[in-house]
Amino acid sequence: MDPTFDIDGLDLDAVAPETPEALAQVVRACRASGQPLYWVGGGLSLGAGIPATVPGTVVHMTSLDRVIDYPARDMTITAQAGIRVSRLQEILARERQTLPLDIPWPDKATLGGVLACNVSGSRRLAHGTPRDFVIGLTVVDDNGKLTRSGGRVVKNVAGYDMAKLHVGAHGTLGPMAQVTLKVRPLPPVRAWLAIPLKAGMNEAAADRAHGCAARPVAFDLLALPGGPAAWTAMIGFEGEAPAVAWQVAKAKEEFRDLAHVQIIECQPNSVDAMATRLAERTDPQSGAVVALGCLPSRTAGLAARVLADMPGAVVHALPGSGVVRAVVPEGKDPRGLLPGWRDAAGPGGWARLARAPRPWRQADSMWGPARPEEAISAAIAREMDPDRIFNPNRMRHNTRLPDGKPS
Ligand SMILES: Cc1cc2nc3c(=O)[nH]c(=O)nc-3n(C[C@H](O)[C@H](O)[C@H](O)COP(=O)(O)OP(=O)(O)OC[C@H]3O[C@@H](n4cnc5c(N)ncnc54)[C@H](O)[C@@H]3O)c2cc1C
């Protein structure tokens, strides 16, 4: 491992602790000097958030990659947070189990990085978000103490669910060292239908999916430049073979009149890699991705608006979950479009850059205008990291002043 690592143009010393205790020791040493710590897993999403400005130490998490306990019959697994997603899935697959999240670049992405970002994929419709799979967490607090919350069993409701605070916090509340997850059975059969839609039919398709008797595990709307139609509906099923066969036939019947050309049955493996292939359209170093959220009922309309404003974008919408992501075409700066998209997203909606080149990564473009509930995040961050040593400046609630002091 290189002794230094570049974070936002800062060439920083790097360490790679091999045990949670060694990780805690790193935190203790840096806390004493007030020096920031930057966690790095697979390094795929370091362009999410406000750029780092304060020099500190990079902590590679990938040496923390052991499976601690896997009681397969209980359908839970406890692993260190630096484990790669592909390795975790291989271990689960031996027991015909899986973590049903559609994580791009599984050979690089780490469990801790996925949880810190909490981005959801196609099968959120049936299975939920990364946060929904966490039942226990071991983290290092700002005093360098290992603390555990939650447990190793699925039924586990005593006390505050502190573990969930770390999911989606982008590492700003401290490093996750070890995670207990609940897992699901590996479905015996998976199937996907791709339905190139007639013009103007993406909202109708989303409405139809909502009431579809075939009960898909995924319903996505996809705009791919050069595709057979402006929008393709992707419908996913998984389960026992006879049930899936019935679902596929039923969905074909229900969507036939919306199809512009023939409905295509896809190889599940080719679609499994869809998240990765879509993500690959962005250069992790310089490309930009926008993310928007709205009520499920507004998703198809919002996705159409994004495509109209940014012709040539790859747009991926999850109408069941109110999520739209779009890969920004090269040469296009989407920042001026964000306020209009926020209005179009409606009450409670949001629009921000999920990943962007460094000069675009200001607080408003990355996280949207400040929202009242951020006061709560700020209060939590003040308690859990008063000196702002954990990924300082990544989110608005953990900014350091230009002199390096906590804001
Ligand atoms: C369907 C789907 C689609 C996605 N599409 C994209 C996409 O197109 N582009 C994209 O960039 N991402 C996408 N993501 C997010 C994806 O989950 C992350 O890119 C990736 O998994 C992050 O893993 P990583 O190990 O590379 O994390 P890193 O990039 O190394 O880290 C990401 C963040 O997590 C923090 N972190 C890492 N490990 C820990 C830890 N152990 N404890 C605390 N904080 C930690 C880091 O400091 C950093 O803030 C998608 C996710 C899903 C599920």
CATH architecture level-2 label of the largest domain = 2-Layer Sandwich
Taking pLDDT < 50 over at least 5 consecutive residues as the criterion, the unreliable ranges are none
Strand order of the largest sheet: 15-12-14-13-17-18-16-19
**Mass-distribution shape:** globular
Count helical runs: 13
Mean pLDDT: 91
Give the distinct bound molecules: flavin-adenine dinucleotide
- Report the biggest beta sheet as strand number plus sense, adding barrel if it closes: 8 strands, antiparallel
Task: Write the topology of this structure.
Elements: E1 4-7, E2 10-15, H1 20-33, E3 37-40, E4 57-60, E5 67-69, E6 76-80, H2 85-93, E7 97-98, H3 111-117, H4 124-127, E8 134-140, E9 146-150, H5 163-166, E10 176-182, E11 184-185, E12 189-196, H6 202-210, E13 218-223, E14 232-239, H7 241-255, E15 264-266, H8 268-272, H9 274-280, E16 289-293, H10 299-309, E17 314-318, E18 323-327, H11 338-345, E19 350-355, H12 363-367, H13 374-384
Parallel strand pairs: 2-4, 3-4
Antiparallel strand pairs: 1-2, 5-6, 6-10, 7-11, 8-9, 8-10, 12-14, 12-15, 13-14, 13-17, 16-18, 16-19, 17-18
The structure holds flavin-adenine dinucleotide (FAD).
